[in-house]
Design goal:
3 domains
Amino acid sequence: MTSLMRILVSLLLGLLPATLLAAPGLTIYNQNFAVVRDQIPLDLKAGENDVQFDGATMHVEPDSVILRDPSGAPLQILEQNYRNDPVTQQLLLSLFEGREIDFFVREVNKPDRTVRGKIIRSGYVPHNGFAMRRYGQNYAMNQMAMANASGAGQPIIEVDGKIQFSLPGQPVFPSLGDDTILKPRLSWKILSPKGGKTTAELGYITGGMSWEASYNLVAPEKGDLLDIVGWVTMDNQTGRDFKDAKIKLMAGDVSKLAPPGMRDEGMALRSRFAMAKSESAPAVTEKAFDEYHLYTLERATTLHDRETKQVEFVRASGVKSELIYVYDGALIDWNRWRGYDIANRRTNEEFGSESNTKVAVMREFMNTKENGLGIPLPKGRLRFYRSNGTQLEFTGENEIDHTPANELVKVTTGDAFDLVGERKRTNFIVDNSNHWADESFEIELRNRKKEAVTIRVVEHLYRWNNWEITQKDIPFLKLNSDEIEFRVELKPDEVRKITYTVHYSW
């Protein structure tokens, strides 16, 4: 059984205390879906029973539905149906095709009147929920667009023996019809060996629900101690309200298949922040769950349809951080070199010759208890602010991936205004017969700030994995198999040059 299957089975089957199921339960994933848990009172008779539930969402995955009696009593479901075609004007027109109804007509400078018309064709294009789930939203929408383009989506009404391809006025229906629903509906045929009342547990997976994490990081006017406030933003687009729901948030890269037409569509996630101080207990608690992390909102929360809600989940003060400057001078257009194999790249003089002058500004801090944090941080956006003595100013933002506790958080926040780098190649020699190449670089760094800085110069040894630095001005650190780093200290308004030569052999 896969990790995702174990998680969903445990959540759907309600392997949680019964008290948690008194209110709706939600486990929201940051991949645009959620697990919903409800309770349904049943009053069954012996034999077959028809049961309807009108509280489902508009994006139910019908084959994920589980209905069970928590007491363990047998609950045999003979048939399940899901309808998500709530009543609309077009649907009612289709139900009255071939019949006459009244149309209310209101015209400028004329008295209101009612005309009688016969519905020849309603123009209704059925919602194909199966096509949307199986082939994706784009496919289903294209099918509807094709139907409309062919004219099938245009109504035909007969008034006084004449045909018109539009409604003569606002239709007035005598009733809702016999086959209409006002909300998405789940219905079952349940075979019960005996009669009696019980409360069944209903669980299913639904789309249209998402969450993401966001972080505000505030630095003082002087120094690098950070105040951090983290928020979770939940977005409900399911077509249903969840009143006083027990909400859990699952963080991690859970494998979840999407319809082919939707796999490349990004989630439209909205994020807003609010800064507020609180001395109360944490609003969100966290624990490991399978291979992921589960965050629980301690208070029951009402999440309305089409609502975006924020809840604070982490707050820390005095987090030690370091502001670092990185000059990565190589500017390589990999699209240009995509068609070249490694043998051609390593001997091509133009490869790696272009450079940029920007020095990146980065912020890093340890996610540890000793540093005021030490909890798994879900992926999300970090916004950085610094006080100018009287107010906060925005200084950059970036995103982090899921970051476990006791790991380093390192993000780029922008480019330094008063720091400049310049990188140029000074020599390149290739000996193809003896399978070696020598390459030399000169890197100039200029500090136009009023204080001393240290710039980390990162160089990529792309040409081959067998290399040796044969000449250098200052020591270097080996970051990995093809990256080295020089740390250069510069005084205010100082200009320094460093050189190095690398020898490749193959």
